[in-house]
């Protein structure tokens, strides 16, 4: 480890990279760092800031055929979980921030999300279609403990009997078990829990501020026992880091009660390639070259592939091995199980906000 630039514990990204939309960028020179050291000043306190923003809409149409959702909503932009591989990092540049450390330290909070969602669901032009919370950033990230925006939105979905999907890697989802159970009784909710490793050391490096693997599997178990359908996302699979864990992860998910599993192969799009490369050279220097080369082998010699239909699955020998292991895992551990299609038939009579019985 480079002592001049020590590894930042509790963060995924170790650097801020230039914003591609800015004509100019800035960097901190060693002269300034040396001056701060002499003066006893900290040039970077590494604290998280919560900044309120005021969007005009909250539901987004998803055009990509790769992600399995038609509509999504994100009540937070940026994510304190700090997952080093997160594809959503690039979206922070649209807000004027870096995809690196800024993404996990500058969290944009949409406090008006519940009101915007209610307006959308009451619209005469809206026809019920599952809306996925966390299409971009985790709706149960640490900020949710303070702001409780996700819970308020679930109350709106319940009020209007509208189907909702959830993607998270935080056991905080269990806080809202009361709402989820009520929604599940009418097949209005499905939860996707992301689990990327069975090894806590690996989890801490990849996803420093997420719930532990034990807590996530416990969340899968409790949700399943309460009749809430759960799909486990083994995502992303990173060759040389967690690709050897597919079968153990699948078995753990099945034993916890998950109805299905899915996967993606890591792709380091946009600024993430530089961020991930810097991170792995600091976090796993002994295997950095091996991992980067195997990722490239999954994407035609590049760290990223933007082709729809292929970018999430990869190509080549390593990608095929991952696919084969996933197919085996599904046959071995998930035979006879299936994730339900959510109910879209109850919403129309509830547009006025009244839960009609007849």
Automatic annotation (TrEMBL):
Protein name per its UniProtKB record: DNA repair photolyase
Domain annotation Radical SAM core: ranges: 65-302
Keywords: Iron, Iron-sulfur, Lyase, Metal-binding
Origin: domain of life: Bacteria
Gene3D superfamilies: 3.80.30.30
A UniProt-annotated Pfam family: Radical_SAM
PROSITE patterns named in the record: RADICAL_SAM (PS51918)
Organism ancestry: Bacteria, Pseudomonadati, Bacteroidota, Flavobacteriia, Flavobacteriales
Annotated source species: Flavobacterium caeni
GO molecular function, one term: metal ion binding
InterPro entries noted in UniProt: Elp3/MiaA/NifB-like_rSAM (IPR006638), MJ0683-like (IPR040086), rSAM (IPR007197), rSAM_sf (IPR058240)
Coiled-coil ranges per UniProt: none
């Amino acid at each position: 480890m480079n002592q001049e630039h020590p590894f930042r514990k509790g963060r995924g990204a170790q650097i801020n990279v230039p914003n591609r939309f800015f004509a100019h960028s800035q960097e901190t020179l060693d002269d300034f760092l040396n001056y701060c050291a002499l003066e006893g000043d900290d040039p970077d306190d590494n604290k998280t800031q919560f900044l309120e923003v005021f969007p005009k809409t909250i539901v987004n149409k998803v055009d990509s055929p790769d992600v399995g959702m038609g509509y999504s909503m994100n009540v937070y932009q940026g994510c304190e979980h700090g997952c080093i591989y997160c594809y959503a990092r690039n979206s922070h540049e649209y807000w004027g921030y870096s995809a690196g450390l800024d993404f996990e330290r500058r969290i944009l909070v949409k406090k008006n999300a519940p009101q915007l969602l209610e307006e959308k669901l009451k619209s005469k032009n809206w026809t019920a279609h599952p809306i996925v919370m966390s299409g971009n950033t985790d709706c149960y990230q640490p900020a949710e403990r303070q702001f409780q925006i996700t819970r308020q939105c679930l109350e709106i979905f319940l009020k209007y009997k509208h189907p909702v999907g959830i993607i998270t890697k935080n056991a905080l989802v269990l806080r809202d078990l009361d709402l989820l159970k009520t929604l599940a009784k009418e097949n209005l909710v499905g939860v996707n829990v992301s689990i990327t490793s069975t090894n806590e050391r690996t989890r801490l490096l990849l996803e420093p501020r997420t719930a532990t693997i034990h807590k996530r599997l416990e969340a899968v178990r409790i949700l399943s026992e309460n009749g809430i359908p759960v799909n486990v996302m083994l995502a992303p699979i990173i060759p040389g880091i967690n690709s050897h864990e597919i079968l153990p992860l699948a078995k753990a998910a099945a034993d916890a009660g998950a109805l299905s599993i899915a996967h993606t192969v890591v792709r380091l799009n946009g600024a993430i390639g530089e961020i991930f490369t810097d991170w792995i050279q600091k976090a796993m220097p002994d295997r950095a070259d091996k991992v980067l080369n195997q990722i490239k082998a999954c994407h035609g010699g590049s760290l990223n592939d933007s082709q729809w239909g292929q970018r999430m699955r990869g190509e080549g020998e390593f990608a095929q091995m991952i696919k084969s292991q996933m197919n085996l895992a599904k046959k071995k551990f998930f035979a006879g199980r299936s994730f339900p299609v959510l109910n879209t038939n109850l919403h129309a009579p509830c547009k006025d906000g009244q839960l009609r019985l007849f």
